[in-house]
Amino acid sequence: MTDIEDLATLAAQFDHRNVRAPSSLEEVVSSGNCMGCGLCESIAGSEFLEMKVLPPKQRMRPVFHKALTPEIAAKALAACPGAQVGGIPGTRASSPYQASGEVAVRARTGWTPSTGLEAFVGKVVSIQKGYASDPETRFKAAAAGGLTTLASHLIDSKQVDFVVHVKACALYSDVSTQGSKLSFSSAEVFEGKGSRYGPVAPLKSLEDALKLNRPFAVVAKPCDINAVRNMAKVDARVDQLCKCLMTLSCGTYADNVCLDKFLTHHDMKHSEVEEFRWRGHGCPGDCPYVRTSDGREAAYDYVDFWFENGKESGPLTYQWRCKMCSDFIGYQADVVVMDCWPKGAPERRKEITDARKHEWDGWVLVIARSERGQAVVDSAKDAGVLTLGPAEGREVLETQPHQARRAASQLIRRMAHGSKYPLTQLEPNAAMRVAKWALDADFVDEVMNTGAPAPTIPDCAEQLRSILPAGEAWAEAILKMPDRHIAYHLDNYKGTLRRLERGDANETYA
């Protein structure tokens, strides 16, 4: 067997056999697999556990008050995106996790990627490029106002009664904005505009939304969308009532302690802040921006904060689950809206060139991944609230190179993590996707051309051979790649182990 489909199946089998998923919600947290979505509180109820922002990193985590019943514990774990990541809805694969290590029959329905690039872009009904037609929304909301516009349009067109999302431009210390925001009008959606680069529990009130027994949509991070898809498998109300899942391309977010350092550096206190923004007022806008009640202002350029390690707010630190994410551009969503800066980065506002000045107005890629997602995008375009033109799948790679680098190294990093600690389990289609990212030499080659070159490592093939499992055809395929590919995989394996050794995946709370 030499084709990528069979090799990816074998790699998926290996991942399933050798990566142990967390066996409880407590272990999801302690092993660094929690991202704080809040779905467990929604399922269990606040008398059993509550989402809280916890020191020292100020991460959103469940605080357990009393033992869950076995039934509730099982349901919460089955829905938890820290325990498992699903594949692409509507694309079914015969499970490659079959006895005797034999390759499963390759029965497929729907879409199946044949290359690493196709697997990276994901299932696509259409890709378009554009912006919110309303100038105020385009300027004030994040990412050209794409998600704000779609959410508002769904309500205005009566396709849904409300939208589950979060209030974006708020300090994490504002307890009233730490959970879900249910908006029943476009004005309420607009009030929550912007980005939320920090812990928030958008699914904390999902049960409340379901109890209303009214059609709704969800706007949240890709991992939160994963949680809703998981929830649909254990609660039929989700598919009956949730009419659209919308997300962004997520490049992770820094721990809230980094924001604390920003405020301290500028001699500001949480209690003094009157206005706070992570993004918006231009694309991308300042990141962050703070204005106090006495009129003092502080801000960083987006490039300085994210590409210069937070400047005085740094070094930026991140929760481990983000580092190990395998669904960063919304493979399970109906609609994805993502920034489309060339090579993945905007220019500094004060240094922006004439050729790229138009980017400040806001442009995004809009991907419809399902027929219902396409219907929503078409409806918004026909109503004139989104201005859209054609785009191509390759633009996802060209404008999201940081995500492509995460993709190509995902398989080997999972091997490193799985050798030490429990890790989010991948359902068959997700595991196959991850394997194809690593096994397609052409894709890995393109990825490596987007960033810093792989380090020169003497005898890298011998070192990697000692790490990869003997007798596995997929491992042999990787070892036959060019030396720079092998060095890339080896460097990511060793880097993951170093981070695990310093405790990045360990979380313990009193």
TrEMBL record:
It holds the Pfam family FrhB_FdhB_N. Signal peptide: none annotated. Residues 129-205 form the Coenzyme F420 hydrogenase/dehydrogenase beta subunit N-terminal domain. It comes from the Eukaryota. InterPro entries: Co_F420_Hydgase/DH_bsu_N (IPR007516), FRHB/FDHB/HCAR-like (IPR045220), FrhB_FdhB_C (IPR007525). Residues 216-392 form the Coenzyme F420 hydrogenase/dehydrogenase beta subunit C-terminal domain. This is Coenzyme F420 hydrogenase. It comes from Durusdinium trenchii.
